[in-house]
């Protein structure tokens, strides 16, 4: 039986940034196969003035503009949120997203990402509308669109049937907490740089000895253990 598809809604003032990515490659294929639906919505649709204003000056003064509550509130009301839905505010102040968070979010039927711009979003969005605030790393970007795409991609590929048989979830980085994948190589075995110099693939991988190859891979994975594992707090 085919499992239920995951629906992702991304609320943004730049919906055109989202479509090219989510209609390409694996996400595009998964959407065609109806395993996934990713839709970008223009927040300006939910403004009520003729200039479609989504931002205003911060109370208390300070530089820049802050995104208003109203478009987010009206958008969420019109999207009719069901039970197994998680509303996520993209934010440089949020908890840092990691593979454990991706696994947790992959259990929902629907995810709604709220993308900020300018100096950020009126705090009442975090207080009353979002279920959680997530950051994709400790740096500041100009908007939440890349964050929404990063998280959508990492979550979507964990859903049944999204990856094809040739792409595997097993034994990859972070499939076990703190463990990274072993190094991978492909043809040619010797990449010539000059008459005297070349880059060689570790000879064990060309040996045909599968037991030894497994041992080598396990050792390489262990050598790359992340310590301390910073992402384990979410
Ligand atoms: N003034 C805010 C601060 O200091 O935290 C930064 C606002 S940032 C210029 C505008 C928007 O980009 C944010 O509201 C958020 O939606 C998004 N954003 C920026 N950095 C992010 C990050 N690391 N993770 C997730 N979203 C981020």
Q: Any overview of this molecule?
A:
- This protein is α/β, with parallel strands linked by helices.
- It folds into two domains: about 5-155, 3-Layer(aba) Sandwich (Alpha/beta knot); about 170-220, no CATH class.
- The protein has helices spanning about 20, 25-30, 70-80, 100-105, 125-130, 145-155, 210-225, and strands at about 5-10, 35-40, 55, 65, 85-95, 110-115, 130-135, 190, 200.
- The strands form three sheets. A five-stranded parallel sheet has the order 2-1-6-5-7.
- Strand 8 and strand 9 (about 200) form a beta hairpin.
- The longest helix has 14 residues, at about 210-225.
- It starts with 5 loop residues before the first strand and ends in an 11-residue tail after the last helix.
- The mean pLDDT is about 95.
- The structure holds S-adenosylmethionine.
- S-adenosylmethionine binds next to strand 5.
Compact summary:
The chain is an alpha/beta fold.
Q: Let me know the CATH homologous superfamily of the largest domain.
A: SPOUT methyltransferase, trefoil knot domain
CATH topology term of the largest domain: Alpha/beta knot
Task: Give the tally of β-strands.
Answer: 9
What small molecules accompany the polymer chains?
S-adenosylmethionine
As residue ranges, the low-confidence spans are none
Largest sheet: 5 strands, parallel
Distance between the termini: 32 Å
Mean pLDDT: 94
Q: Count up the helices.
A: 7
| CATH level-two architecture of the largest domain | 3-Layer(aba) Sandwich
How many domains would you count in the coordinates?
2
Major beta sheet, strand line-up: 2-1-6-5-7
Oligomer: single chain
Q: Please give the CATH class of the largest domain.
A: Alpha Beta
């Amino acid at each position: 039986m085919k499992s239920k598809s995951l629906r992702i809604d991304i609320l943004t003032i730049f919906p055109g940034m989202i479509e090219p990515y989510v209609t390409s490659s694996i996400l595009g294929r998964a959407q065609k196969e109806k395993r996934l639906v990713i839709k970008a919505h223009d927040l300006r649709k939910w403004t009520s003035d003729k200039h479609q204003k989504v931002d205003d000056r911060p109370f208390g003064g300070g530089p820049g503009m802050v995104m208003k509550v109203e478009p987010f509130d009206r958008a969420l009301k019109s999207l009719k949120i069901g039970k197994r839905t998680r509303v996520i505010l993209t934010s440089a102040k949020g908890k840092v997203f990691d593979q454990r968070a991706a696994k947790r979010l992959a259990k929902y039927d629907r995810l709604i990402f709220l993308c900020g711009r300018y100096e950020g979003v009126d705090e009442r969005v975090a207080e009353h509308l979002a279920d959680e605030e997530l950051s994709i790393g400790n740096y500041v970007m100009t908007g939440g669109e890349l964050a929404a795409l990063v998280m959508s991609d990492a979550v979507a590929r964990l859903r049944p049937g999204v990856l094809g048989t040739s792409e595997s979830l097993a034994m990859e980085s972070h499939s076990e907490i703190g463990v990274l994948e072993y190094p991978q190589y492909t043809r040619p075995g010797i990449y010539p740089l000059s008459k005297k110099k070349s880059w060689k693939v570790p000879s064990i991988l060309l040996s045909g000895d599968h037991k030894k190859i497994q041992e080598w891979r396990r050792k390489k994975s262990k050598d790359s253990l992340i310590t301390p594992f910073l992402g384990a707090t979410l």
